[in-house]
Amino acid sequence: xxxxxxxxxxxxxxxxxxxxxxxxxxxxxxxxxxxxxxxxxxxxxxxxxxxxxxxxxxxxxxxxxxxxxxxxxxxxxxxxx
Length: 81
Fold this sequence. Notes:
Layout (H helix, E strand, L loop, with lengths): L2 E8 L5 E7 L5 E6 L5 E5 L5 E6 L5 E9 L7 E5 L1
């Protein structure tokens, strides 16, 4: 039932990739927003594995929010390029 937020820089006009891979114990929802709170990627499937790719228009920080929707613990990897 916890939420983690990561502030990650990406370069403008450069391909960006984000993956979250959980251990299978619970569902993970993922939201990626830019510094202006515009949604870049939103995944609310019944999985703990998600992949997003995008090309930012400018250099900036992006916020990756990972929410565990269950009470059971889920260890996960957050991967970016």
